[in-house]
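Sample log: Outer membrane beta-barrel protein.
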Amino acid sequence: MCSKKIRNLILCFGFMLGLHAEENTTEGNMTEENISKDAPILLEEKRAQTLEFKEEKEAKKNIDEKSLLEEIHKKKRQLYMLKGELHEKNESLLFQRMAKNKSGFFIGVILGDIGVSAHSYEKFELLSNIQASPLLYGLRSGYQKYFANGISALRFYGEYLGGAMKGFKSDSLASYQTASLNIDLLMDKPIDKEKRFALGIFGGVGVGWNGMYQNLKEVKGYSQPNAFGLVLNLGVSMTLNLKHRFELALKMPPLKETSQTFLYYFKSTNIYYISYNYLL
């Protein structure tokens, strides 16, 4: 009787163990099945997170590169502006030094030409007419002052020009002379890096005297053509090594044509000349 009870207990215990094992197997199968179902979702989420991280990293990298490029461009602009300011300062100092070196006293020589026409009035018995183009020789001296830009300047100077020609009589000479005090505005354009060579133009005015004279002792009571008045100067120039200045110019004298108030009729052209000035 006891053995029968023991056997029944053993059978019940075995049955319970079998049920427990079956439950564990079922739970394991269900867990594996759930894991198998959730795996693709987890992988997709991980991939999405990885892509998002890469995109954030790439975006941050692009922002850093953009900021770096902007900073580089900013520095380049600053450097360019500093170079420009330095260049302007150096140019300004160079022009100031040039202006100082080109200012001062000067002397010069002049070679010119003028056309002269003269004839006597009917009441005077002079032998012939005058039609000549005498060469004029002259000197000048003055002072020139260049402004800080080294390009423009004012020049103050006095000059004299004179020449000879055949007079009314075959054995006589007549002379033409002019003297003036002038002020000119000079404009020079440097053509080299060191600003020592330049091309330029100039113009100015002055007050002066000019006249024609010949020895006519037999005629009394009449003056020969001469006058005081305004003088006009225009020309072009070339400066070499700061100190040597060559000019091609014209001068409009005060008297170019006379009336019957003088002993004889006189008419002239403008004076055309070349000159050389040396800066002392």
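Observation: The helical segments are 2-102.
Observation: The first strand starts at residue 104 and ends at 113.
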